[in-house]
Design brief:
The complex is a heterodimer of chains A (about 325) and B (about 400). Chain A is an alpha/beta fold. Chain A contains 12 helices and 10 strands. An 8-stranded mixed β-sheet of chain A has the order 2-1-3-4-8-7-9-10, with helices on both faces. In chain A, strands 5-6 form a two-stranded antiparallel sheet. In chain A, a hairpin with a 2-residue loop joins strand 5 and strand 6. Chain B has 12 helices and 15 strands. The chains are: A alpha/beta (about 325), B alpha/beta (about 400). Strand 2 of chain A pairs parallel with strand 8 of chain B.
């Protein structure tokens, strides 16, 4: 039934982007014509996710860029059932959908007629940006993960509140310029660390947690297929650059996401039943400066007098990377 | 004339309001019930959870981590195609409010008992109607009940009302915290099969889980459509005025229990002076009316069942020609008249001046302050003096 990886992670059928595109030809689950920005990383996440799943899908969407740009009434970009309730509650609303699916199926098995065409099987996917997930939606996400609903929460992380114009979020990296942590005479951008949401999800002891990037699409496809197969909650944190907020040319989105991976700023890893696996190890990690220099939000770090800040950032990336390697104990699962 | 149900004692059980409502929920057998504990609603969901645990009804309970998530999960399940209930009170409702507005706008027929309680601060767990008034403009239908029997009956009726395709709105069934939720009295339950047949099966219009026919629900509106959607929602709410009596009639036919109209009029027809209340205070007010009648005073009571939508025309008709009316508010609207008072005043404004009663507003019973017969008698006595100015007065509060 599943295309792609079985739960032990050994096989994958989607070898080329062409194959992924062919799946889209078969069933166009997310259509063009929406008003997401040129070069936005988010539709890449959505299309890859929806094309990676064979079964019927229900999407629950938190308020954010993805929601407002794809469902401006009376239009919609979605060819799958789609629900938006509010900003902070996608996980809670998805809990309700999942509970409804489970109980209606049970009642049908017990002989109660269901007055509509209820599918035998469905995958419930929640999409939220980093604002709606790291920050205001964290409580609902935590509750839903703890309760064990069978659904997959996908955070598309563009590292700030981009829907309202690039304000800092709990996902914004240190020293980034945002409109609420602006760089100025007395300020060097965001002063705090990022919240490590992926590790927070891991701490819920859910069956599957992973970090992925739109640049490594096969890895993303495999992770989605893993995530929707587990019997319980799963969580994916996907880096999705924002050309408006990060300040780069729209043609560079995938490349900049790739640099985040190659500099070890955004490691690709997964945690299956608590066991860490590294999914990609750069042969020779690039200096963080290679990623930083591509983006306007970090422009101030390139000034000679701020060299020490860049060094500090590099040290931090190194430290976190080493920590992750220790957690993975050398278990590398590359695709 | 309003006929009111009195439990037949031989068929009645000694139940708290919370237990009575939990039994209604068991008979309704909603598909999904997200629950979060909050005083004084907690015994409702505890009783119900035990019934589910004992296999007495097949419901998916979601033990959510907040009331905000309770209403969010309720919306998710309702849109998915399930019959959904939850329950709350006070701060819980306050936390839900954001999503309650959305539930109404998405036309989710979620039925929710509300154990009425004061709002913080200062924190107080006891009864008043501040929480219900907080939800006044949310788009949820609001019914107030006087006793455990009404709380039970209206919980069943609320399902039919909410799910009527002319309505499709959340319905809140208010029952006074502790006074009703925790106090035991004689309540006559319907046989399970009668209750179940009355509520019937839920047929959702556009279930999200009908994956072969995908729908986009909860989209983004610009100024070109938002206004029209709000107008439709308001028209649905106004439609309740038509459906509510129909549901009461259907309930009477199915159960032999006669509730008629938007309000109960107690010794009101020939009264010159009237008191208007919501909820359990009506029981005390009836005693006062009887006492004052025995003394020869022509007084009566109007107890509203339906608060949203507000039945302005019917209320105007009921109070037309009275000399004076005391409106009892168990909530404040800071810097304004009481929320019930403003509705009554608006209802009476259209009457010809000669038929328009003098109106008085009394605030009472905030934060669970005891409501004595003396206080209601004081209100009914004061308004009989035409020289009494119509300022807002506080009953039972220290200066």
């Amino acid at each position: 039934m599943m295309t792609g990886l079985s739960s032990n992670g050994e096989t994958i059928r989607l070898k080329t982007l062409k194959e992924l595109a062919e799946r889209e030809q078969r069933e166009l689950r997310f259509q063009g014509g929406h008003s997401l920005c040129a070069g936005c990383g988010v539709p890449l996440v959505v299309r890859t996710v929806l094309n990676a799943i064979d079964t019927p899908v229900v999407v629950v969407n938190a308020t954010g860029c993805l929601e407002v740009a794809t469902t401006r009434y009376p239009s919609t970009a979605w060819n799958v059932p789609w629900l938006h309730v509010a900003f902070e509650n996608a996980a809670a609303a998805a809990s309700g959908v999942e509970a409804a699916f489970r109980v209606l199926n049970r009642k049908r098995k017990n002989g109660r007629p269901i007055p509509f065409d209820l599918p035998e099987d469905v995958r419930i996917i929640a999409f939220g940006g980093d604002g709606g997930t790291y920050d205001i939606g964290l409580q609902a996400l935590s509750g839903a993960l703890e309760r064990g609903h069978r659904f997959t929460y996908i955070c598309y992380d563009n590292e700030a509140y981009m829907n309202t114009g690039n304000q800092r979020s709990g996902a914004t990296p240190p020293l980034a310029h945002t409109t609420t942590t602006p760089v100025g005479e007395q300020s060097l951008g965001k002063l705090q660390q990022r919240k490590d949401l992926t590790e927070i999800a891991v701490a819920h002891h859910v069956p599957y947690v992973a970090q992925a990037s739109i640049s490594n699409w096969q890895d993303l496809v495999r992770k989605i297929q893993m995530a929707v197969q587990v019997d319980g909650p799963s969580f994916l944190n996907v880096l999705a650059p924002c050309q408006r907020g990060w300040g780069y040319d729209p043609s560079q989105t995938v490349e900049i996401a790739r640099l985040a991976v190659e500099t070890c700023f955004w490691p690709l890893y997964e945690v299956i039943d608590g066991e860490y696996r590294l999914n990609y190890r750069p042969r020779k990690p690039l200096p963080i400066a290679e990623w930083v220099k591509t983006q306007g939000r970090f422009r101030h770090l390139l000034r000679p007098e701020n060299r020490h800040l860049l060094d500090a950032l590099q040290e931090q990336v190194n430290r976190e990377w080493e920590r992750l390697l220790r957690k993975c104990e050398g278990r590398l699962l590359e695709v | 004339m309003t006929l009111v149900v009195t439990p037949r004692l031989e068929a009645a059980q000694l139940l708290t309001g919370a237990q009575a409502v939990a039994h209604a929920m068991r008979q309704i057998e909603p598909d999904v019930v997200p629950v979060y504990p909050i005083t004084p609603q907690t015994p409702i969901i505890e009783e119900f959870a035990q019934m589910v645990a004992d296999g007495r009804c097949d419901t998916e309970i979601i033990n959510v981590e907040s009331e905000h998530s309770a209403m969010s999960a309720a919306v998710g399940a309702s849109v998915a195609g399930a019959r959904v209930m939850t329950a709350t009170a006070s701060q819980g409702l306050a936390l839900m409010i954001e999503v309650l507005y959305i539930a109404a706008s998405m036309r989710c027929p979620i039925v929710m008992p509300l154990g009425n309680r004061a709002l913080s601060g200062p924190i107080n767990i006891h009864c008043d109607h501040s929480d219900a008034m907080l939800a006044r403009d949310s788009g949820a239908v609001q019914i107030f009940t006087e006793n455990g029997q009404e709380a039970y009956d209206y919980t069943l009726m609320a399902v039919r009302l909410a799910e009527d395709q002319r309505v499709l709105l959340p319905v809140i069934v208010n029952l006074d915290g502790f006074t009703l939720t925790h106090s035991a009295e004689a309540v006559e339950l319907l046989p399970d099969e009668v209750a179940r047949a009355f509520v019937g099966h839920y047929r959702p219009l556009y279930p999200l889980l009908d994956t072969a026919r995908p729908t986009t629900q909860g989209p983004f509106d610009m100024p070109d459509f938002y206004y029209e959607h709000k107008r439709q929602q308001d028209e649905a709410m106004r439609g309740v005025l038509e459906v509510f009596p129909e549901v009461q009639r259907a309930y009477a036919e199915a159960t032999g229990r006669n509730y008629r109209g938007y309000y109960e009029a107690y010794r009101l027809d020939d009264a010159d002076f009237a008191v208007v209340v919501l909820g359990s205070t009506a029981g005390t007010a009836k005693v006062v009316v009887d006492t004052l009648r025995d003394e020869g005073q022509r007084v009566g009571l109007l107890k509203l069942w339906l608060f949203r939508p507000f039945p302005h025309a019917a209320v105007a008709e009921a109070l037309r020609g009275k000399q004076a009316v005391a409106v009892m508010d168990r909530a404040l609207s800071f810097g304004s008249w009481g929320p019930l008072f403003t509705e009554i005043a608006a209802a009476l404004y259209g009457l010809p001046e000669a038929k328009r009663p003098r109106l008085h507003n009394f605030t009472y019973g905030l934060g669970g302050r005891d409501v004595t017969p003396d206080q209601i008698a004081e209100a009914l006595t004061r308004i009989q003096d035409p020289r009494t100015p119509a300022v807002m007065r506080y009953l039972g509060v220290r200066a």
